[in-house]
Structures are given as structure tokens and as C-alpha cells.
UniProtKB/TrEMBL annotation:
Protein name (database record): Alpha-amylase family glycosyl hydrolase
This protein's UniProt keywords: Glycosyltransferase, Hydrolase, Transferase
Lineage: Bacteria, Bacillati, Actinomycetota, Actinomycetes, Micrococcales
Biological process, per Gene Ontology: carbohydrate metabolic process
Originating species: Cryobacterium zhongshanensis
InterPro entries hit by this protein: GH, GH13_cat_dom, O16G_dom_2
Family, per entry: Belongs to the glycosyl hydrolase 13 family. Sucrose phosphorylase subfamily.
Record-linked Gene3D superfamilies: Glycosidases (3.20.20.80), Oligo-1,6-glucosidase, Domain 2 (3.90.400.10)
Glycosyl hydrolase family 13 catalytic domain location: 5-425
One MF annotation (Gene Ontology) recorded for this entry: glycosyltransferase activity
PANTHER family assigned: SUCROSE PHOSPHORYLASE
Highest taxon above the source species: Bacteria
Amino acid sequence: MTDVELLVYADRIGGTFPALTALLDGPLQAFGSVHVLPFYVPFDGADAGFDPVDHTAVDPRLGGWPEVRDLAGSRGLTADLVVNHVSASSVEFTDWLARGAESPWDGMFLTYGTVFPHGATEAELTAFYRPRPGLPFTGYRGADGSRHLVWTTFLPSQIDLDVAHPVAIAYLRRVLRVLAAGGVTTVRLDAVGYAVKTPGTDSFMTPETLAFVEVIGDLARTENLAVLVEVHGHYTEQLAIAPLVDWVYDFALAPLLLHSLGTGTVDRLADWFEIRPANAVTVLDTHDGIGVIDAGPAGGRPGLLSEVEMAEVFARAAEATHGHSSVASVVPEWATLPHQINATFFSTLGGDVVAYLVARAVQHFLPGRPQTYYVGLLGGLDDRELFAETGNGRDVNRHRYSAAEAEEALASEVTRAQLGLVRLRSAHPAFDGQFTWSAYGRDVLELRWVNAARSARAVLTVCTARGATSFRIQLADADGSEVLDTVESLAAWRPGA
């Protein structure tokens, strides 16, 4: 059976590792795996944990490594390996600033001079792909007065590693060993597409990047860790990297579903189903928002969606969120559209429960591992107050749930129906069989799983017609057959019931 995965911040639902474990052992027990977003010291840094000061320590406000191992228990546990950078407050970086060449971390950090020892032209500097406005450098001064132009792809406080240097590789190897000892079973290579800087290219998902992925993948497998790669980019990049690792993301699915539900068509989804990798973690929304770039054109290569169709997806999201997604989403340097929609998936559909469950049903029926983000599971709408407080557009989809809020959300129809899908994908014997699919006319998709050995069958039929969106799930096994075509029937489904 497939282990459906929950994507969560330990501090934003539950609050601690023991509290999160209680949820996963209780109302969320249908999830066979959990991806806990960065829980290192500190989990609440400038980039919500993706700027570790100490990548090998659990933030004590959440618990410790024994509590992490308790959470892992008999379920899968995914954790992030932040391969591109560390915090400017890390021991490694501060020691290097203090001691320079005498520091054991000398060589670990990427500087302008490392990449351009003989200087760079304007064209070379502006060629680099960066998901933020401006150039990727920040000035730091050493204790001896030396000045360093340090590479900072994301934030000025996130110091890029020189992943070609043995000291950086030794650092990453040490982190992998700690994660494996802590009960982690899969590591997600965060921001790996940006990790290798190659002059003369945009330095995003180049052949040199793929070679590095193989290196770090081998290190992970030495620790018996599966490897999941996070890359937001042209869909061909997912296809290129899929054979090299255990898991990639199907980020293209979300914008394609938004396109289908917005236009009442399924042809673009069908195009993707023909070629998508089977070893994909399927997502609709994540802590980084809703990826749209993943379905669009790039570098002269056509996309699954055109530039115009991408713009229309953003426009419909803006309409559904009353303009807020346009305010919260960021346009990178040299780009004309944001990479991602900063909104919850439920908000981009205007809170339409049936349309939302159509999207979730397609996600859960595709081959691979479905992953549900905690805000999406709880039917969350945009957290505009948190965005107003922090100014970080991604925070609209990073709500901090109190125990009372979580309890109320778990009782809602949209959450109960999603949990029905999780139970279905996790327990029905049809999903151990063969997958096929068909498109009918302009607006109907049928996704089928058949397990002949168990006389089991699961068929999802969705219609994306505007004003007539619907889903119908037909189930059969040795014990009989049933149809799930309402929110209530989906919420009530349990194996053997």
C-alpha cells in the first residue's frame, strides 16, 4: 500500500514533537508518513527554519532527538537537508569570519572570488537565476578587517556553501549521519537546484547540478536514507532528475489542475499524465505556496502551459482571493510573473469544497506518493493577519493552529473528506494494482486502479466543466462494491466498513 504523507511544521500544529505524535497516533493515523519541515536550531529563524544555525540539533522548544525517534515510530519520516546554505549565525560561518584561513571551516562558503577568480562581466553576473530580486551577494567583514563578497542566493543571512569543497561535503555528510540516527528515513534536498554555480550559465539545474545530486544521493544512501529532490523549474528538469533519485516532486500538477478547473478542460492534464514520472510526490500546496513556474515555459522551451495561460492562472487566483494573492506573491529578478501563488489552494478556488475535492481526488489517484500540507488538510484560507505581521508572502499559507482551531478544523467536512481519501489510498487493495487513465471529451478524466489478484478496482471520474464540477469514485473488491460521489460519502469511507 502507498504511505500517504503529511507535510507539517511541528510548531504550527501541535506545537511540539510529542503533541504532533499524539495527532498522528490519533485523528491523523491514516497518514503512513510525515514530513516535518525544519525543526533544527532555530525553527523560527529568518526563513522558518531553512536557515539553520545548528543543522544537527533539534530546537529544544519542540523536543529532542528521542522525541523525533518516537514520532518516527513505525511510520516514515522525511526531513530537510539544507544543501545550499547555512545561517550567518552558525558556528561554522562565525568561526570563519573570526579566524579566516585558520578556521577548520575555511573553504566551506562560496564567495564571488571562488566562482569568478578573474572577475566577471555584467552579462555573466546577470545570467544567474535567482528567485529573489537583486544580485545574490552580501558583504561580510572578517575579524581581521578583510572584506568578503559572500554568495547569498536567498536571504542575506543565508550563506551559500561551496559544495565542490571537501569541507562543505564533510559538513553535509555529518548532518546526514545525525538525521539517520534520529529516525529519519527520507531526506529532502532543499534548494539543490541552486547549489552549483557555473559561470556562463544560469546555474540552475545544469549538468553540474545533476552530478552533485548524484554525489549527495550516494552519501545519503550510505546512511540508508531515501532521497527526495526539491526543484522548482521547467518540467523537463523533473524528468531529468527522476532517474537519479528515489523521489521527485510533481509540482506541475497543481497549476495544471487550477488551469483545468478554471477553463473546464482536461487536455493539459492529459499531456502531463503521458510523461510524468511515476516516482513523484504529488502535491497541491506546500509551505512555499503553489508552484506555477513548474508548468510554464522557460529558456525558450515550451511549457505544459503557455505564458498567457500561466498569467490567467494567477489572474483567477487574484480574483478568488480578492487581489490578495497578487500582493503576497513575489516576482523574481528578470521575470514577468511570480514563481508561485502565495495563497492556500482552497483560497485560490474560492473555498469551493467540491472543486477542491476534485483536485485532491486526482492527486490521490495518481501514481507516486500523495502528500498533503497541513493547512490544506485543515481547509485553511489565507492567513492575512500573519502576512501583515511578517511581510512574508508565504506566511499566508503557514497558519499557526491552536489546539482548539485544529480540533474544529478536523471536524469540518472538507477535512473529513480529505481524510477519507487518505484512508482510501492507504488501504484499498486496488492501489496495489495497475494504473491506467483516459480523457473523454473536453472536460472528463477517468483514473483507474485494478488489482486482478485481489479482485479489486478503484475508478475516479472527474468533470471539470465550469458550473458542473463533480467527482465519482467507484470501488469494488471481494467484499462488494460502492460509490462515493458526495462530500459526506467520501468523509465516511473506511476500510472494511
